[in-house]
Structure formats: C-alpha cells, structure tokens
Amino acid sequence: MSRHNYRHASTSRQSDQGHLLRGQACTNCRSAVHLYIQRCDGDRPICGQCTRATRLGDPCEYIDPTRTRTQILEDTIADLNARIEELERSESGQSSAPGIVLHQPYDDPIGSTSSYPGSPGHLQPSAPSISSRISSSIQQRAGSLESQLEEPPQQERQALLDSFLSHASQFGFFLDRQRFRQSAMLPLPLGDHSRPSPSLLATAYLIGHTLSQQGGFSQLESSLLTDALRATATMAFDTHPHHVIHRTQVEILLSNYFFRNARFLEARHHASNACSLAAACSLHRLEIVSGNVAVEAPQTQLPPPSDESEIVERIAAFWAVYALHNLWSASLSTPISLSFDVTSQINIPWPSEVDRERRPVGGELDFASNDIVRRYLAGDQDQSIAGSGLPALFTKTSVLFERATNLSARFTSADQIGDAEAMSRELDTLTILVESIRSQLPSLTPILDSNFPSMRLAVVTHALVDATVIKLNAPFSQQDQAALQRCISAAQRIINSADNPLLLQLGVVNPIMAVVWPMACQVIMHEIVRLQVNRAVWTQGHPSDEELQRRSEVEVCIQIMGAFTAQSSFMDTQLSKVQLAYANINT
User: Fold this and answer.
1) What angle do CA 561, 565, 566 make, to 5 degrees?
2) Does residue 95 have a pLDDT over 70?
3) Measured distance CA(203)–CA(258) in Å, rounded
4) Closest Cα partner for 268 from 327, 315, 206?
5) Name one GO molecular function term (predicted).
C-alpha cells in the first residue's frame, strides 16, 4: 500500500474536528516529550510526528484493535519459539505427533523439520527493527520473484489444475473452483491481479503434481514446494484484498499438505499463519449496514466486500481456518496458535452451501449471529444460529471434536482439572449437540452413489461425529458398560462407512482421517483384549464369534488405510502403528 493510501486510511480514526480520538495515538507520541511538542496524527505505518523525528526505521505501534506488522511478527515469533521447543523435545524423543491411543497421542518423534529455504526458526525476537527489515526485504524481492517463477506450459498447467481441483476440498480449498480455474488460465502474466496470486498458483501446481504422481517425494515436487514457499513468504505483506484472502487460502493448503506428509512442525507453522491472517483481517466480524450489504468490522485490514459473493467467500475463509485450528489442535493435543482467541467475538453466520452464482442456498445471509459459537455450545436454539447445511455441520463438528478432546483430557487427568459438576454438564451438552448433528446429516449411501461434490465433506463429517462420541465416552469406558458400548458402536460406524468401494475410488481423503481411522481401530482392539481376558478366565480355547467379528473389523480398517498410504506418509505411519498394535494382541 502506498504512503498516500496509509494516510487516507488513517483519517477514519480522527474526530470531526480533525483531532485523533482519545487513546489512539501511537506509543511514541503518548510519551510526555511528544505530548508537549505536537499531537499524533495517527498516520500509518509512521505518523507525521515520528517521521519528523527521523524514526523512519520502524512502523509506529498503536494500542488499538488494529494489529501492526510488528505485532503480527511478535505473535509469529511466539509461535516459532513454541515450535522450536517442540523440535528440541522431538530430538530427545518427547514430541507429540498424533497417534492411535484413545486418550493421548503417541509420543513418537516428529519425522521431519522445517527444511525449506528461509526457514523462520532463526528469527531473533530481540533484534531491533525486525518488522521494517523483513518488510523492506520482501518488497525488494517481490518484483523479482515473479520473473524467477516459471509457470508450466498451458497444457501442463491445465492438467495440474484439474488434478488439484478434483481433490481441493480435502486440503481446505474454500474459493469458487470454477472462478479460480478460469482466472488461473487467463493469458496474463504472473502477478496480474486478474489472476490468482503467484503463491496460490504455485501451491495449486504443487498439490496438483503431488496428486498426479505415485510414489515418494520427487525432485520436481521438491522444486515446486520451494517455489510455493518462496512465493508465500514474498507476499507476506501484500495488502491487495484478493491476495490477502488468497494468502489465507495458501496457508490452509500448505498446512494440510504438510499434515498429510507427517511434517508437523511445518504444518503447524502454516496453520498458525492462517489463524493470524484471519484474526488480523477480522474475518470473524461482519456487520450489517443495510439490506444485504455488509462491511467489515472497524479497524480491519480489508475494505468492505464488493458484493454478496465476496461476503460468502470471506465467511468461508474464516470457517476454513477455524475448522483447521479445531481439528489439529485436538489431534496434536496443543493449540495450533496461542494468539487465535476469537471464539467470543464471532458474529458471522455459519458457512453456507452456495449455488452457481455463489449465493447462499436457502435465501439471504442472516447476520444476527453475535457470539455464534458460544451460543451454540450453550445449547441456544435460536434459528438465526441454526446452520443446517453440510458446510455448517462440518464446522460445528470440528468445534465439538475440539471441545470433546479437551474435556476428555480433563476427565482423565490425575488432577481432575475443573469443577466436576460443570464438567458433567458440559459432557451432557456436548452429547446432545453431537447427536443433533448426527440426526441432520444425510445418509452416506445415497451420497456415495450419487457422487455429488459434497460427498467428501459428508464422509469426513460422519467420521468426525463418531470420533467425537468416542472422545466423550472413552474416559468412562472401563467402568461404565453403556459408555463402552457407545465407543464400540461409534468405532464400528466409522469402519463400516469407510468400507465402501466408491469411497476407495476417491484416492484422496482429508488428512484428519489418518487420526480418525486409527482411533476406531484402537477402540475395537481394546475390546478384543477384553474378550481375550474373559476367554482366559473361563478357560475357553477358541475365540468367540464376537471376538472374530471384532478382528474382522480391525482388518477391514487396516485394508482401508492401506488404500490411502501411497500418497500420504502420515497415513502410512499411522497404518504401521495400527498393524504393530494389532500384531501385539495376536501374540
């Protein structure tokens, strides 16, 4: 953004008399020396007073809802420090990659670390002017990057995009596919605003190539990954509205790409970036202005959306980030981003199914949705927060999965963290909510038979609903026969739903299935062990029909997981753990 545009943006922070509103001066001008010299004019990135004081190195700091570049970098540095500690733990065998046990993940070392050029692990929080130096460096490289990146020939580009778009939903793609493909194929240079951003195109080519290949990590994939990461780093401070949304999309895609390849440090890094972008752009706060027109909440980095299609896109962007944060925070047993705390501020409607014109199916958007997640978790039945479409049900399930995982950990903790009565009430509420979602989900059989685009989302939502049931009941399964049976039934539904030839033909599934399927296997294997103990007590020599049936279910799940290992090292790793655990109970 130009200096002129920064000044133009700052005028909205001033009163009608031309003075800056109380409390909105930069931190430099709030000091006593500056207050006696001249009032702060609120300009960004550097106010007029600081410009005259030759503080040209650093952007001004403002204590208001606007997040400056330095603040965003400080959040990033905090996340990086947490990941460095995780890496150090992994070197001593103490990392937290997701596994197949019921209550806690396996503690296997993380298989890979940040290996791409420009890894952020060496950032020093104490370095002065870090924001301005990084910004300046990126701006200098931005012009040269587009000349360095080479797009594939048109025919190959088309094939890569088709390969990517066929499975894009499994990587968290929320943009309009047809519009994306059309703009990507325009005969315009890389970086033209009529086309997707260079980083989004590079990431699409990377994933498209990965999905079109069989086997391991190739030299070409390595080169494409380097291009995608370099392009993403270069556009870190690109403020073009479309490119900000595109960068959010890129961070989600790269996060799922790395999760799929069991590269958890890099996956968490990009997921955290997506969270920071969504919060900085206030994608969780859309206000009603008049009629169907909505604008962003005050103090955001994005201008008001131009039409309803753009509103729908921004809503989809936020919920895609929120679901990513919920699912992987639960799976890794640690928050993806410590600074992503927006749950109490969300006032956008749940994501909607859209028609070909990107309008919400079923009517106009309803923005009477203040505090929508907290009200939903409290059991509020207000129709303005209902959200019954498949995208909304998936997002709600991600919320319940994260809450159930957290609650389960508190129940199984030696210290019984939290008030027991309050935890019991939360358990009852979550149980009611998850069963409500199950009752609203379409049956999988007609979905798979019809092969309509939402089938992938329906498959993962069904599986996550039952995974949530397991999380809610697992802490009590050893003492409560009813809780044990609910766990077993949920695990059986997960396996039976996956045991479908049409599902196997998909070739690609959401990376979270590498967490859900092993969870189902673990429940069934626990039941096999229980049946074995009973058999030993009663000195029965042969397995019962029930035990044989449970063994068959585990073997079916192993076969299903095996069908998806060729292109997912995470699934392959999880399969090996299941096979080892199953072999141990057969000895």
Assistant:
1) 145
2) no
3) 12
4) 327
5) DNA-binding transcription factor activity, RNA polymerase II-specific
DSSP 142-201: HHHHHHH--PPPHHHHHHHHHHHHHSGGGGT--S-HHHHHHHHTSSS-TT-TTS--HHHH
Unique residue bearing structure tokens 């076969």: 559
Q: Cβ(200)–Cβ(227) under 8 Å?
A: no
Contact 238, 221 (CB under 8 A): no
Asked if residue 372 lies in contact with residue 346, where contact means CB atoms within 8 angstroms, the answer is: yes
Mean pLDDT computed over every residue of the chain: 76
Query: Looking at 81-90, 192-201, 524-533, which range is the least confident one?
Result: 81-90
- Indicate if the pLDDT at residue 6 is higher than 70: no
Local confidence band at 359 (pLDDT 50, 70, 90 cut-offs): low
Joined together, the tokens standing for residue 13 give: 């922070």
Domain segments of the chain: what residues? Answer: 3-64
pLDDT reading at 98 higher than 90: no
Tell me, what's the pLDDT at 17?
A: 44
Q: Are 57 and 39 a contacting pair, CB within 8 Å?
A: no
User: Widest CA span of the chain, in angstroms?
Assistant: 93
pLDDT digits (tens, 9 = 90+) for 384-429: 556 778 999 999 999 999 999 999 998 877 566 667 788 889 999 9
Cα separation, 226 vs 222, whole angstroms: 6
Asked if 480 and 458 touch (Cβ cutoff 8 Å), the reply is no
Which backbone phi and psi does 360 adopt, to 5 degrees? -65, 135
Alpha helices in 479-568 (DSSP H): 481-498, 501-504, 513-537, 545-562
Q: What is the pLDDT of residue 129?
A: 40
| Single-letter amino acid, residue 567 | Q
Instruction: Give the DSSP H/E element, type plus range, for residue 422.
Output: helix 420-440
Tokens describing residue 92: 């001593």
Q: What is the CA radius of gyration of the chain?
A: 25
* E strand intervals along 246-378: 286-290, 293-296
Crossing angle between the packed helical segments 241-260 and 569-585, to the nearest 10 degrees: 30
Q: Which distant-in-sequence residues (6+ apart) come within 8 Å of 269 by Cβ? A: 79, 80, 83, 114, 120
C-alpha span between 293 and 364 (Å, rounded): 11
Please give the Cα distance from 167 to 173 (Å, whole number): 9
- Tell me the C-alpha distance between 183 and 176, whole Å: 11
Alpha carbons 344 and 182: distance in angstroms, whole number? 38
